[in-house]
Structures are given as structure tokens and as C-alpha cells.
Design brief:
- This protein has helices spanning about 15-25, 40-50, 55-60, 75-85, 100-115, 130-140, 160, 175-195, 270-280, 300-315, 320-340; strands at about 5-10, 30-35, 50-55, 65-70, 90-95, 120, 145-155, 195-205, 215-225, 230-235, 245-250, 250-255, 260-265, 345.
- It is of the alpha/beta class.
- The strands form 2 sheets. An 8-stranded mixed β-sheet has the order 13-12-11-7-10-9-8-14.
């Protein structure tokens, strides 16, 4: 079996998570990193024992490179992803896939045109609790789902936004508390519930200075299955709380807090329900990023990257495909349009 070589574009904070995840994969190795900053490139190479480049063309010409992960600021994902696709490298893009649906479509088209795999990074889908909820929905255990909510009440200091000129800008961050922090919960919500058809929203910047984007947002949703929902996202809630998702139906309801299930109750109890409650009613193993963006584990990334490797080796469909990763971006873009216009927005855009 050929060892697959990984490379990372953009060697900021999240690249460390990528490097650790790649290091845990069998039959794979981290061979290269690229960053326009020579200082960051040198440090990354020393830390993870790989070649580094400050020329993107030279990086993509590395003969051992098979898969590229894109870890640049969000509004630069398009450039790195398309360059990698045109170099015939498989592409994994950190969340969000890009900052608008149209830019996501450009990445999807480039990967299709060059016959390479494309995956978005939504590692929360790979934890056991979300998979159990997805299975219960598919089994019809909730009856008619009437509500589905996502709450991401996190905290970021002013120093966090001041730490990079790109942070808090529309051009490079693509948005604030929703596009940057809440997107994992929004992705899970649509993965569970299916298409969102209507949104109405308010957004504002309530506690931070020198940023263009929202630090607080509330959106009301309607799903194609008739259910209603609410998304709450903020980076202004001291000290920061774990993200929460609620799925509420006529025959059952579940509440998930980060990697834990804090409510699992169905009208028709199954033998495995008590075991699920016993196993998953526990605290999360990380801070979940609620107050510290570095307080996240890399194991979800490892599972996601591993699934992409499997799809390459067996020429199979990628689980978190570009089209699938685009969904959360489209919902957030719809929320922003509603907040800016003061009107309800219909999806798809």
C-alpha cells in the first residue's frame, strides 16, 4: 500500500491540529507545509519534521505530495484549494469551505474538473453522540420533529480579534460568531434536519471593537420537513459555554452538549437507550473552544482525514463532500442577508 503524503497550506494555529491528525493516520505522513511567512514555515518544519516552502508553486510540485489540507484564513480558501486541484492534488478544506456559496461552487467545480477528491472539515460529525442522533432520526424515533435548535454561546477577548489583521473582517473571516465559531453546530443541525427553506435573523456587534462582523446573532429557521428552529451564536458570553444542540419531537427528544448527550428520552424505550445514557452522559474531553480557540482536540480531524484517505484508496464518495460542506455556508449567508435587509430570506440562494 502506497504511503500517502499530506501537505498543509497556511501554517497558523489550526495547522497544528491538522499536523497532529495526519500524524495519527496509518499509511500516511506529513511531507510538506506552505506559508508566505518564512518564520512560520521554519517553525512548522522544525516542530513536525517536514519540508516547508514559501512558494506555493514549489510546494505543490513536491513529488511526495498527494493530499493538501487548506488551513489559511477563510476568505483565502478559494485560492489554495483551486491551486491544489489544478496541481492534481486531493483537497481537504478547513471550515468554512469558503465564505459564500458562489466561492464554494468554484472550489467544487475546480476539483471536479481535475478529477480530485474534495472534502470539507466538519469533524463534529465523526463523534459518537452526533452519529447516534443521526441514526435515531433515520429510524424515525423522534416521531414528527417540531423543533431543532443550536446554541453557541462562546467568549472571545478583544485580544483574540486584535491578534490577526484578518480576524473580524468580511474579506478574510467571512463573518463573525456564525461563520467562524458557530458553523460546526450549524453544520450538525442541517446534517440532522435536512434543508433549511427560510431564515429570519438579527445580527450585531455588541461587545467588541475594531471588527466589521457580528459577535452576536439570532436566527429563526424553517426546515423542509416543516420543523422550526433557532440558531444563537455569540462570542460575547463570558466565560463561554459548550455548544448545545436540541432535537425535539412528538415521540422523543435529545439534547447534546459538545460531545455529551445530556438528554436522551423516547416514548418507545429500546434496550440500548440506558447504555447510551450511561456512556454519553459525561463531560466533554476538551473545552470545546468555548473560551479558548486552542482548547480543541484533533481526533475528529483524524477520523475525517482517515475517511478521505479511504475514499481515495477505494475511489469512493467523500463523506463530507464539497456539496455537503457548502450547506452550512449557504445557511449563514442567508442569515446575513436577512439581518442586513430586515426581511425573511428563502433558501436555496
Amino acid at each position: 500500500m502506497k504511503t500517502l503524503g499530506f501537505g498543509v497550506i497556511g501554517l497558523g494555529m489550526i495547522s497544528e491540529v491538522h499536523a497532529k491528525a495526519i500524524g495519527d493516520l496509518d499509511g500516511c505522513r506529513l511531507v510538506a507545509g506552505f506559508d508566505s511567512s518564512e518564520e512560520r514555515a521554519i517553525q512548522f518544519g522544525r516542530t513536525y519534521g517536514c519540508r516547508t516552502y514559501t512558494s506555493l508553486d514549489e510546494f505543490l510540485a513536491d513529488p511526495d505530495l498527494d493530499i493538501v489540507t487548506v488551513a489559511t484564513p477563510s476568505g483565502l480558501h478559494l485560492d489554495g484549494a483551486i491551486a491544489a486541484a489544478e496541481a492534481r492534488k486531493h483537497v481537504i478544506v478547513e471550515k468554512p469551505l469558503e465564505i459564500t456559496k458562489q466561492r464554494c461552487n468554484q472550489i467544487i467545480a475546480a476539483c471536479a474538473a481535475n478529477d480530485v477528491k474534495l472534502a470539507g472539515v466538519f469533524p463534529s460529525r465523526y463523534h459518537e453522540a452526533p452519529k447516534l442522533i443521526k441514526q435515531a432520526i433515520e429510524q424515525g424515533r423522534f416521531g414528527k420533529i417540531v423543533m431543532a435548535d443550536a446554541q453557541v454561546k462562546w467568549y472571545r477577548t478583544q485580544a483574540y480579534y486584535d491578534s490577526g489583521a484578518w480576524r473580524g473582517t468580511w474579506k478574510f473571516d467571512g463573518g463573525g460568531a456564525l461563520m467562524n465559531q458557530s458553523i460546526h453546530a450549524i453544520d450538525l443541525l442541517q446534517w440532522f434536519m435536512g434543508d433549511v427553506t427560510e431564515v429570519f435573523a438579527f445580527t450585531d456587534t455588541l461587545s467588541h471593537e475594531r471588527i466589521e462582523v457580528e459577535d452576536t446573532a439570532v436566527a429563526v429557521l424553517k426546515f423542509s420537513n416543516g420543523a422550526m428552529g433557532v440558531i444563537e451564536g455569540t462570542t460575547s458570553a463570558y466565560p463561554g459555554f459548550l455548544k448545545k444542540i436540541e432535537i425535539l419531537g412528538t415521540k422523543g427528544s435529545v439534547v447534546m452538549e459538545e460531545e455529551s448527550i445530556i438528554a436522551w428520552k423516547f416514548e418507545e424505550e429500546l434496550p440500548e437507550d440506558q447504555a447510551i445514557r450511561a456512556k454519553y452522559f459525561h463531560g466533554t474531553s476538551t473545552g470545546g473552544g468555548a473560551s479558548d480557540p486552542k482548547a480543541i482536540g484533533h481526533h475528529g480531524h483524524t477520523m475525517l482525514f482517515g475517511s478521505v484517505v479511504d475514499s481515495i484508496r477505494h475511489d469512493a464518495q467523500v463523506e463530507v463532500s464539497g456539496e455537503s460542506a457548502r450547506n452550512a455556508v449557504e445557511i449563514i449567508e442567508g442569515i446575513y442577508r436577512s439581518a442586513q435587509s430586515g426581511a425573511k430570506v428563502n433558501l436555496p440562494l
